[in-house]
Amino acid sequence: MESAVERALRTRIISWVQERAEANGGFLHRAELLDFRIDEQRLPIIDYSRGIRNPASFESTLSIVSATNGPYDDTESEDGLLHYSYREGDPWSGDNRKLRNAMATGAPLILFRKEVPNIYTPVSPVYVVEDYPEERTFIIALDESFTFVPDVRRMPDNQRSYARRLAKQRLHQPAFRTRVIVAYETRCAVCELKHGSLLDAAHIVPDSDERGIPTVNNGLALCKIHHAAYDQDMLGVTPDFKVRIADNLLEETDGPMLKHGLQEMHGRSIQVPKRRADHPSQELLAWRYERFIAQV
Ligand SMILES: [Zn+2]
């Protein structure tokens, strides 16, 4: 059984991580996670060198880190669940014991995706749902309901597609947001607003299209209003990075948001990331701009 103290601490840490990530734009910096304190006592939320955090006073694992290469995590399986390898050494003691304990007690943990050095995207709560000793692997699920599935390897199709949908919402979209917002240095490409909590990662080619992949080149960091305007073709971006506002909006007369927030953006250049490799793809911008033109 998980102790009441541990459970209360865990709940507090998970909420703190969620709030802090939301304020930053969906991620936390390494230093924030290492310097976390509870009642003056330092309680790091990650173990920087080991990728799994098992505080000495905790019976179950608090957090795990998965490093990613590219838009998809290689620990992810086709079924939308995560395959987490046993830690080195004895499968029945230390880190492995505490992970197994999280499975036994159903204790929620935090999965951090490390998209960029020193930047962590939290996915929480997640649950350890299976243990495959012969493969030295734990299965991690994004929803408590999977703890009730007798064998996740033989999940019925409807559950499998639910797991995949969940992976898209809770793993891929947050990871995309982090990569884009970090590349744009937490700044709206159109108006330069610098509040992470008011920024989104907009897809240039929507993710419903097969070319709408979650890479930085298919993204723009936009504030909430410019994101919505972009999605509704009220605002367009030309392949050479110029902002265009739809004609009907330019002709309207209204208050300061229309005037300063939209009309005055017409003709400005978007702010692109410093790294050339992170620039939005001109080809994808051209595809999207065609759609904008067709609407106007
Ligand atoms: Zn903006």
TrEMBL record:
InterPro entries the record matches: HNH_nuc (IPR003615)
Where in the numbering of this chain does the HNH nuclease domain appear? 188-237
Which keywords annotate this record? Endonuclease, Hydrolase, Nuclease
What is a single molecular function from GO for this protein? endonuclease activity
Q: Which protein are we looking at?
A: Restriction endonuclease
Question: What is the originating organism of this protein?
Answer: Promicromonospora iranensis
The record's annotation in Pfam families points to:
HNH_2
